[in-house]
Every structure is written in structure tokens, then in C-alpha cells.
Design a protein that fits this description.
Length: 115
């Protein structure tokens, strides 16, 4: 279906549909259309991230060969759930009282335990 609409992926088709649905919602709210047929769409794209989760054996293999800085970076990412870009912007000044204050690019902040 995605290819029929000029989209290369199902995810792209979902984005195009959501954009069109927002446009129709705007028009419906202002009385410019009688209905919004895109009001409750179903998704074409479903992300499956199970293959991205490392097993304990994979972690142990990494820890056996990786230098300390890589092990620490991995643990920070794995245990905080922060995105790569957010981890790269962390500074030492964000660390106070055994916690790091982190701001996600998604516009919310949290306190992350460092112990």
C-alpha cells in the first residue's frame, strides 16, 4: 500500500497520513469540511525492537574486550534509556549528589541515579 501512494516505506506512509489527518482535523474544527474521514486511523508501520536488545552473553562479550570508557558509555546508555544525542550532550556539571540531571531532546527532563 505504501508504494501505491508514492511513499517508500510504511513508516513514511503513516507520517503522510497523519499529516493529512491533522490538516483535515483543522478544517473540520473550523467548519470547512463536513467530516474528517481520517479521524481514527490505524497504523501501517509497527516497530519491532526486540532484535535490538542485547542478551547477557552479548554484554559479557563486549565487556571482555571493550576499554573502560566504552563499557561506561554502554552502561550509561543501557541503564538510563537516553538517546545517543542526549548522552553526548551530558556534562560533568549535570552530575550532583549521585544523580545526573538529563534533558531529553523530546523536551522533558529527569534525574538519573548514578549508583
Amino acid at each position: 500500500m505504501a508504494e501505491q501512494n508514492g511513499c517508500e516505506t510504511r513508516r513514511q506512509a503513516d507520517y503522510v497520513f497523519a499529516t493529512f489527518a491533522s490538516f483535515l482535523a483543522w478544517a473540520y474544527d473550523r467548519g470547512l469540511t463536513d467530516a474528517n474521514p481520517c479521524e481514527k486511523p490505524s497504523k501501517l508501520y509497527r516497530s519491532e525492537r526486540a532484535e535490538c536488545i542485547w542478551t547477557q552473553a552479548e554484554e559479557e562479550a563486549l565487556f571482555a574486550i571493550a576499554p573502560e570508557r566504552i563499557r561506561l558509555a554502554y552502561m550509561l546508555a543501557a541503564w538510563t534509556g537516553q538517546r545517543q544525542g542526549d548522552l553526548l550532550t551530558l556534562t560533568w556539571s549535570a552530575s550532583t549528589s549521585g544523580c545526573a540531571k538529563a534533558r531529553r531532546s523530546a523536551a522533558w527532563s529527569s534525574r538519573l541515579p548514578l549508583r
